[in-house]
Amino acid sequence: MGYGSTFHGCKEYQKDYTSYLDRMMERSKKIEFEIHVYHCQNCQEDLGTFQDVRIYLTKQSKELPIPTGFMKNIKARLAEEEKKRRQKNKKRNKWIFIFAVVCTLIIGIGFFTGTFANLYYTWTVEDQELLPYLQHDFGEMLNLEAESNGVKVKIKSAISDEFQTLIFYEIEDTEADNQYGIMFGDGVFVENEIDLMNTDVYPLNYPPDLESAINKEKKNVYHGKMGLFPIREDNGTIKLVITQLMKLNDASSNPDEVYDGNYKTGEWEFEIPVKKLPTKQFALVEKIEVEGVPMRFDKLIIAPTATILQYSINAIQPEKNLSSITFDNLVVNNKKVIADLYGGAFIDAQEGMDWSTYQAYFEPFFGKKPKEVKAQLKEAFLTVEDPKIVELDPSQNYPQTFAYAGSTITIEKVEIGNPSKVVISDHNIENRTYETLNLGINGDENIEMGMKNDSVIVDKNGNKYDPIDDLVKYEEIEQPRYFVTKYDISLQSDKAGEEVVPKRLEIYGYNTTKYLNDVVKISLD
Length: 525
Fold this sequence. Notes:
The protein is α+β, with helices and mostly antiparallel strands. The chain has helices at 11-14, 17-21, 27-39, 41-60, 72-113, 115-124, 131-135, 193-196, and strands at 144-148, 151-160, 165-173, 180-181, 188-190, 221-228, 235-248, 259-275, 280-290, 293-303, 306-314, 320-332, 335-350, 355-362, 373-391, 400-404, 407-415, 420-425, 436-441, 447-458, 464-465, 481-493, 504-515, 519-522.
């Protein structure tokens, strides 16, 4: 009838016009259809044209040529039926109009509030780690793809802020059941790094996660992320070059090693568009003491790729120094973000060197402006000044013992030679105050001192692990403490052929770890 020539919409959606207008379409398909029509001008015009066709057919049905006098009673009945049908169509069109307005309002509200993006990405993105970034408009799906040597690499998305550029990727082995990962700097580099990126801010480390649900679905596909330097300008294009991929362990040979040790070589090149997203900072006003050492919270920094807690520690203490502290989590507006195991940095010393400032990294926070912040402390690493001098005499018989920090330390050996040797030990670690000693031999004499240690890791329940022989991940041990049980010290003079005579053992202090379970409520300025 001449209408077909005006249809320019997507063919795969034309078959759905009738079921949509008749409200017979199932919910999931209906939502997908509405999303498509919302973005496709041609399909919008087609849908309107299709309604016009239906109206035209209705009009044509009244003009069919019927012989005069033929079945007048039937024509009268048809006229009555037509009248009823018009009334029915009028009512139905009214509801279609109302329905269309409501749909438009819903889609419009969803577009402006983010609900639309939320639903859309929930249906289309299977990577649950990438999903919240897209839902909060911190990035977009790129799906850049390159294939080489039987392996397909896809860059799914890129998110950048002032701290790092986060690259989400997918690697598929098209020829075998292998999983590969990308490690920046190991066969992976940015061609325009000097021109584009700020190399003063080092990105976080993201080890491969083979235990995630998405990486267990297929043996030949791996979904991962890596951190690159942040870009200096507001936007740019990263020229990423990959020449080798790291083969990941299939967990059957050695479950304690993530990397297989083998590589897949090839040439994968990408031009990745990226823009630098803004960061929000909030001043904090809270001071506490940790094991007697003053500490204060300075800033909460909320960036798209990380949540950062900036804090300062008083560095001038006569007997005890809090060398570092770790956190278990932050709770921001009742949302918990877990501390990054590998995230932490020293910023600077300030106020006459009295305070040292650090940053602790946490998972990204996706939410509104923070009103309440709580920090759960985890570990405090302390350096304690507790000086002691023990005289040494190679002519005496050894072993000998002396008391220190509530423990008994044994001098096993003092020998003069080239080099000379001093061996001390303390194998009784139960309830031991110190973990490692800060020590020297003969004070300021010009000697070269080497040291070998024997050590043991002890967990919360007293279980012991050999750090060399036991294939156990340190982060998986509950409240680990690292005890040095033996110091094998070698001494050599800076003058050739001259022997060093060990005269005195000087202990300056010791290091120890305190596990905390304090939750600090932090006030925002």
